[in-house]
Structure formats: structure tokens, C-alpha cells
Design the sequence.
């Protein structure tokens, strides 16, 4: 007989059940109870504590109500927009059945691994038991399973197999979109792995990186490698041109030894890395600035003594989020490496990697929004307050609908950038496509990063206090969203990148923007239900054009102050055009139309609004500084 059933039958026999169930038991009076001395036995005459209702130990009564938890369902089947988008652009049974099966796996298996990654974060073991320095980054078994899964599912490989031609990137990113919020942040190493494969492909798949390329893009788990992207040093992760101190000392065999300190290296358990360093000449001198930086390839390996070759892991970072993933400070102390860019072309060569990681970042942002909206929507069907389910409270539904609109906008924007990337990689991109891809990559990254934080934060609130409780898994979503606007270029750095590509293309990227946005609107001109949205986007395009014309005549500082608002305007206008375009598709739903209309009700061109308020005038910068430090304006 088990302990449980023994207890149950004893209670029944002794009438405990009767005394506990018939009338509400009196409070247990601890002080009036006479306790037996430790080690003595209670005399036979003494009544049982249970019989008197004076249980010395008893479960507290906590009531019978237990709230049903939100349930994660197949993220592919649950996402009407994703399925609609693919039905429109990639109507292939093979892609659908793969995404459906993967969605099932994510909901029923992978999501738990992601949770395990969160509660079993990596740790660094500096020394073995005998004092030998080993610098082992110990990761959870779930983290390792994520690596195998990523290879098997082709999460990087799909982008290079190109089975669906120009739509292959859309297919790959759809899979990552389904995977991301359950991945335990494994999407981070995958982003860099994809970026490294892209860089290698763009410079040529030959020695010394041919083996690496085949491992980065394989579907065989036992061969699969991930890559790091070690760019950030102590002096800066944004201004890498002046912040990079790492030097590359040429060796007789044509390779290099790297010496430096990398301050933020993400997913540091990678098998290889691409990194920037300054090549030394014979006298040991280097060239300052970006012109002195070259791109290097290095494998991360161990010697027979178990030590990392040429690397010491200084410590793991203690981060707000992304705790599932090791982020380390690394001392490069003679790391063997190969230069894979022309001398001094490091930044330009790693830019391909930045394009890919920024797109991955945007996918993760849209996916985080989608996940919280799905969970909040499900919860609203299970949670009752003020006499009815949350889903029957119009104000609650309005809040979720606003989150849904943001999520739809983010999804279409990032998928359009994936479409452009796919076109470029399969050799069908027009000049207009190429310009759009260059302009929209920083735009989508910076805009979705901000949206994700806002939407996920709102999402947590929609669970009330439970959204703030760690083991619901919800707070982790917010922590992990916060990084999306920081790494891979902050909002301001990327806003300046937008200005840079406008200037370097002599405005051609903006010309492509206007041309394509107009053509999206033209396709919807006959759909009367969309006309308020079309009018709003059209008006915003005119305002933007006026802004550009005025700004072109002003001093450089004017544009710099306008950079963030300009980037936001580009994002909102283009997203509005995409929502309209999707809603004008013959199989679009009434929700597609409603989402487009709602999106276009906001200020689509904040840069024009702020310009009218003279926010970029020359006196603004000193006034801003005076406000921040609350001092009188100097001079
Ligand atoms: C879920 C997803 C997870 C992702 C996880 C990744 C985790 C990894 C964590 C990190 O590594 S965080 C560190 C990320 N660091 C950055 O993103 C750097 C941010 N800073 C910038 O992007 C700056 O704008 C930049 C360093 C590029 C500025 O450097 P420079 O030297 O002032 O650039 P410059 O002179 O404008 O451009 C040099 C060349 O690069 C030019 O080529 P050309 O010489 O041929 O004209 C530029 O056109 C090219 N270039 C620069 N940015 C580009 C670009 N090309 C294409 N796209 C870009 N965005």
C-alpha cells in the first residue's frame, strides 16, 4: 500500500474525513495543544489530534480556484497572416507541410527545451579539478539539442540550398519566425552563422573557409558549426572603426596571430568566428580608423592539454536577458587566424554579415510580438474578470487588436526585406530592389526592435500580475526583447546608417522607396474599402518628399537631428503600403483590411510633423542639452 493510500484509509477509518468535511473545522489551536516530549510516545488515552480538529500540521486552505494557463498552440497554424502571406507568395505544398510539422514540434517539444535553456543558463568553468586552465563554457543539454535541431531543420541551410528560388529566404525566415520565441535564444548563434556563411559566399568559397562554409550550411548535426561575430571591444561596439584595438601579427606561413580583447562576444561556444583586427606592418605599426581594419576568420579549438588555443575566456556577462546564451569577454592571445578580406576592407566585408544578422533580429522582434499576442489572445478566452471572460471586454480586445496591428505591420515589413534579400541572392533583383534592400535593412531592424519592446511589455500587462511572474515564462520574453534594439546597431546608429546610405547612393535609395511605395498603392486603388488608408499613405509620401527637399538645403546637423524621425517615417509609410497591398489581394480577409486602416490612422510621417514644430532647427541641440543637464544655454 502506498503512503498516500495508507493515509487516506486511516483517515477514513478514524473519522477524520467526517470531522474535516462535515462542518468547517475550527482553527488549529497550536498553543492549547499539549505536545509530546521529543522521543516519548503519546499515551493511548490521549485523543488523536486529528479527532479534535487540532491538527499540528495541515495543508493551508487556499481555495479551489486555479486559473487555466495560456496554451501555446502550433504557431504556424495559429498565424493567419503568415499562412496568408505564404499562400499568396509561396504556394508550395512542401513548404506548408514542413512549416506545419515544425510548428507542431515547436509547440509540443521545442518550447520546453527553450524553457530549460532559460532556467539552466551557461556557466564558465575556468579550471579543471587539478588546477589546469580550461575555460569551459558549460551549456545545458537543451542548448545542445537546439544546435542539432537547427541543422536537421535546415534553419541556416535553407537560405543556401535555395530550393524555392527567390522565395527561399522567405521560407527560411518563416521557419525561424516560428522557432524564435521557443528557441532559448538559439536564434542568436544561427543569425551569426547565417551571416558568416553569407560573408564567405560573397568573398568566394575557397581555402581557408571552404570547409567552414560547408559546415555552416549543412543539415547534418554532427558536422554543423556555428559562428561568432566578434566586433565589439571595450572602446565601442558602434564606432568599431576607432574602437578596435585588436592587432593581427603576420606569420611566416601567411596566417596571422590575433592579440586583443573582445568585450562582447555572443554565443561564445561557437566553433569559429569572423572578427576585425588591424594588420601590423613589419615594424608593428597599424593604420588607425576603419581603413586599418581587415576581416579575419578563426577556428575555436582546443589543444591536447584541453586549453583553448589562443583564447582566454575572461568571464561571462551578467545580462538583463538573453541569459540562455553565453556572452563572454575574450582575451585573444595569439589566436591563429586568416585574413579573408582585402587589407583595410574589414568593415565593408563584415557589412554582409550585419545585413543578415539585422534581418534575423527583425524576425525575432516580429516573432516575439506574435508570440505574446497569441498567448494573450488565448488567455483572454480562459480568464474571467468582472463577470465575464477577458475576450468579452471591449477595452481589453481593443488593446490586443492594437498589438495585433503592430505585429502584422512588423511581419510584413520584415518579410518584404527577406523577399528582397532572396531576389538579390538568386540574381533576379533589379537596381530598385537592391536600393530598397540597403535602405530597408536598418529601417526594419530599428523599427521592429522598438515595436517589440512596446508590444511585449503591453502583452505582459494583459496577463495582469501573472505577466510579472518569472516561472510563467512571460518576463523572459520582455527581457529578451530589450536586446533587440541594442545589439546589431542601436536605434540611433542605424538611423545614421539610413542617412549614410541615402548620401552614398545620391538619393537613389529614396527614389526606389518612393517608386515602390507608390506602385504598392496603385495596386490597391480600385479597392474602395482601403481608400482612407491609401489616401493617408499617399499624403505621407508627399509630406516626406517635401521634408527631403527642405532638408537637402539645410546644414548637415539638421538632417542628423531628423535621422530617427526620418527612419520611423520610412518604416511607417512603407509598412502602411505593405498592409494595403496585402489587404488588396483577392483572398485577403476583412481583418487584413481592418489592420491596414488602423495602421494608417497613426502619424505616418513624424519627421514632417516634427519639422513643422521646428524640432531640427539649429537652436534645438543646445536646448536639448540644456534640458538634459537643466542648465542655462551657453553662448
Ligand atoms: C536574433 C538575432 C541575433 C543577432 C545576434 C548577434 C549578436 C552579436 C552581437 C554583436 O556583435 S553586437 C555588435 C554589432 N555592431 C554593430 O552592429 C556595429 C554598429 N555600427 C555600425 O553599423 C556603424 O555604422 C559602422 C561600424 C558600420 C560604421 O563604420 P564606418 O567604418 O564608419 O563605416 P563606413 O566608413 O560608413 O563604411 C565602411 C564601408 O562599409 C563602406 O563601404 P565602401 O568603402 O565600399 O563605401 C560602407 O558602404 C560599408 N557599410 C557600412 N555599413 C554598411 C555598409 N554596407 C552595407 N550595409 C551597411 N549597413
Sequence:
Amino acid at each position: 500500500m502506498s503512503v498516500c493510500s495508507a493515509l487516506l484509509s486511516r483517515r477514513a477509518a478514524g473519522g477524520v474525513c467526517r470531522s474535516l468535511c462535515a462542518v468547517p473545522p475550527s482553527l488549529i489551536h497550536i498553543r492549547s495543544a499539549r505536545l509530546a516530549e521529543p522521543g516519548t510516545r503519546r499515551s493511548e488515552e490521549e485523543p488523536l489530534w486529528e479527532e479534535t480538529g487540532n491538527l499540528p500540521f495541515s495543508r493551508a486552505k487556499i481555495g479551489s480556484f486555479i486559473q487555466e494557463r495560456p496554451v501555446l498552440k502550433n504557431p504556424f497554424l495559429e498565424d493567419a497572416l503568415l499562412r496568408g502571406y505564404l499562400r499568396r507568395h509561396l504556394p508550395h505544398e512542401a513548404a506548408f507541410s514542413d512549416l506545419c510539422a515544425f510548428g507542431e514540434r515547436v509547440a509540443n517539444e521545442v518550447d520546453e527545451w527553450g524553457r530549460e535553456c532559460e532556467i539552466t543558463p551557461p556557466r564558465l568553468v575556468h579550471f579543471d579539478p587539478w588546477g589546469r586552465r580550461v575555460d569551459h563554457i558549460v551549456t545545458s543539454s537543451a542548448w545542445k539539442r537546439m544546435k542539432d535541431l537547427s541543422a536537421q531543420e535546415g534553419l541556416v541551410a535553407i537560405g543556401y540550398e535555395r530550393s524555392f528560388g527567390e522565395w527561399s529566404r522567405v521560407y527560411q525566415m518563416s521557419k525561424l519566425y516560428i522557432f524564435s520565441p521557443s528557441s532559448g535564444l538559439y536564434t542568436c548563434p544561427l543569425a551569426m552563422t547565417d551571416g558568416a556563411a553569407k560573408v564567405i559566399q560573397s568573398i568566394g568559397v575557397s581555402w581557408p573557409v571552404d570547409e567552414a562554409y560547408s559546415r555552416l550550411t549543412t543539415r547534418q548535426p554532427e558536422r554543423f558549426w556555428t559562428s561568432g561575430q566578434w566586433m565589439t571591444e571595450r572602446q565601442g561596439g558602434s564606432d568599431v572603426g576607432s574602437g578596435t584595438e585588436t592587432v593581427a601579427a603576420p606569420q611566416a606561413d601567411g596566417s596571422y596571430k590575433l592579440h586583443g580583447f573582445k568585450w562582447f562576444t555572443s554565443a561564445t561556444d561557437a566553433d569559429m568566428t569572423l572578427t576585425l583586427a588591424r594588420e601590423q606592418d613589419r615594424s608593428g605599426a597599424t593604420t588607425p580608423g576603419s581603413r586599418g581594419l581587415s576581416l579575419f576568420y578563426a577556428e575555436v579549438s582546443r589543444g591536447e592539454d584541453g586549453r583553448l588555443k589562443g583564447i582566454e575566456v575572461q568571464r561571462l556577462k551578467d545580462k538583463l536577458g538573453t541569459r540562455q546564451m553565453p556572452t563572454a569577454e575574450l582575451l585573444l592571445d595569439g589566436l591563429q587566424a586568416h585574413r579573408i578580406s582585402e587589407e583595410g576592407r574589414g568593415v565593408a566585408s563584415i557589412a554582409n554579415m550585419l545585413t543578415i544578422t539585422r534581418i534575423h533580429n527583425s524576425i525575432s522582434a516580429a516573432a516575439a510580438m506574435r508570440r505574446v499576442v497569441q498567448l494573450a489572445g488565448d488567455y483572454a478566452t480562459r480568464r474571467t474578470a468582472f463577470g465575464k471572460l477577458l475576450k468579452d471586454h471591449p477595452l481589453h480586445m481593443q488593446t490586443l487588436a492594437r498589438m495585433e496591428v503592430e505585429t502584422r505591420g512588423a511581419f510584413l515589413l520584415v518579410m518584404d526585406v527577406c523577399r528582397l534579400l532572396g531576389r538579390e541572392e538568386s540574381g533576379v533583383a533589379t537596381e530598385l530592389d537592391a536600393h530598397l534592400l540597403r535602405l530597408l535593412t536598418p529601417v526594419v531592424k530599428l523599427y521592429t526592435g522598438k515595436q517589440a519592446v512596446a508590444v511585449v511589455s503591453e502583452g505582459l500587462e494583459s496577463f495582469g500580475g501573472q505577466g510579472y511572474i518569472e516561472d510563467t515564462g512571460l518576463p523572459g520574453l520582455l527581457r529578451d526583447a530589450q536586446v533587440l534594439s541594442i545589439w546589431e546597431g542601436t536605434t540611433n546608429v542605424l538611423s545614421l546608417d539610413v542617412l549614410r546610405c541615402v548620401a552614398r547612393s545620391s538619393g537613389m535609395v529614396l527614389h526606389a522607396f518612393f517608386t515602390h511605395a507608390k506602385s504598392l498603392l496603385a495596386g490597391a486603388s480600385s479597392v474602395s474599402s482601403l481608400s482612407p488608408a491609401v489616401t493617408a499613405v499617399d499624403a505621407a509620401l508627399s509630406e516626406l518628399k517635401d521634408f527631403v527637399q527642405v532638408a537637402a538645403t539645410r546644414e548637415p546637423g539638421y538632417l542628423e537631428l531628423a535621422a530617427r524621425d526620418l527612419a520611423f517615417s520610412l518604416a511607417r509609410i512603407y509598412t502602411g503600403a505593405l498592409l494595403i497591398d496585402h489587404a488588396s489581394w483577392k483572398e485577403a480577409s476583412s481583418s487584413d483590411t481592418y489592420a491596414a486602416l488602423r495602421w494608417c490612422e497613426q502619424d505616418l510621417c513624424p519627421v514632417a510633423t516634427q519639422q513643422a514644430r521646428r524640432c531640427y532647427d539649429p537652436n534645438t541641440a543646445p536646448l536639448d542639452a540644456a534640458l538634459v543637464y537643466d542648465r542655462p544655454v551657453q553662448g
User: Anything to note?
Assistant: The mean pLDDT is 91. The first strand starts at residue 123 and ends at 127. The longest helix spans residues 346-379. The chain has 22 helices and twelve strands.
